[in-house]
Amino acid sequence: MEIPVQEYEAIEVRAAAKEDERAIKLLVRGERLNPLGLRWSRFLVATDNSGIVGAVQLREHFDGSRELGSLVVRKDARGKGVATRLIDALLLTASSRVFMITGAPFAQHYERWGFQRLEPANAPAPVCRNYRFRRFGGALAFLVGRRPNRPVVLVRAAPALLYAVGGAAPRPGRNRRVVPAGIRPPS
Ligand SMILES: CC(C)(COP(=O)(O)OP(=O)(O)OC[C@H]1O[C@@H](n2cnc3c(N)ncnc32)[C@H](O)[C@@H]1OP(=O)(O)O)[C@@H](O)C(=O)NCCC(=O)NCCS
Questions:
Q1: FRET pair for 60, CA 20 to 30 Å: which of 15, 69, 82, 155?
Q2: Distance in Å, CA 126 to ligand 1 centroid
């Protein structure tokens, strides 16, 4: 019997380096995500043998609030768990509450990490501002014939609180692995 040979592309998740800055910006801007605050040192990147295939960052706002942002995976690498790996790794470094903004149809997807919906008005001011920025972008996109998803704000409690309230620890995403080498808490 002939065994089919499957091509295996090893995905590595690591802290970004200065040399990754250009690739990160190309990925983020290519998907028209928030172009502001793309400091490379806050990013984790996913790589395979072709280079950088995904990125995510933990924005730290002036008031100390933190926001998971700029989550992007190169089109040809989607649907293989790359974003899941990035989020798993990023949240392992987060010791406080984390906010994020996503399209309403995807809110449920992030429950596995403990994210829950939050009224945008109850979010910290910088997160609320990014939410309004995204809604504004959505309105402009609508005018040129695209149909963007309505954004929602999500929050994940600090890990200590997540476990203290008696709930189960959030189920990590698929392909959970130990913290990859080179990952450090974002500065
Ligand atoms: C969203 C995105 C990062 C997912 O990357 P990925 O590596 O394909 O994700 P994974 O393989 O780990 O997981 C796929 C799941 O993500 C879900 N998902 C979560 N948020 C999503 C989003 N904003 N757009 C599309 N899919 C999303 C999909 O529904 C899919 O769920 P399923 O496995 O139940 O079908 C990728 O589609 C992308 O770069 N999109 C453009 C940029 C973007 O929308 N970023 C998200 C901002 S919150």
A1: 82
A2: 24
Is residue 81 within 6 Å of ligand 1 at its C-beta?
Answer: yes
Ordered structural domains, the chain, with CATH: 12-164 (3.40.630.30)
**Angle 129-71-111 (CA atoms, 0-180°, nearest 5)?**
85
Two tokens, residue 168: 């189960």
Full-model pTM: 0.86
Percent of the chain whose predicted confidence (pLDDT) is above 90? 66
Contact present, 74 and 27 (Cβ < 8 Å): yes
Which of 34, 71, 175 should be mutated for ligand 1, with most atoms under 8 A from CB?
Answer: 71
- How many angstroms separate the alpha carbon of residue 83 from the centre of ligand 1? 7
The two tokens of residue 102 are 């996503």
Residue with tokens 């910290």: 124
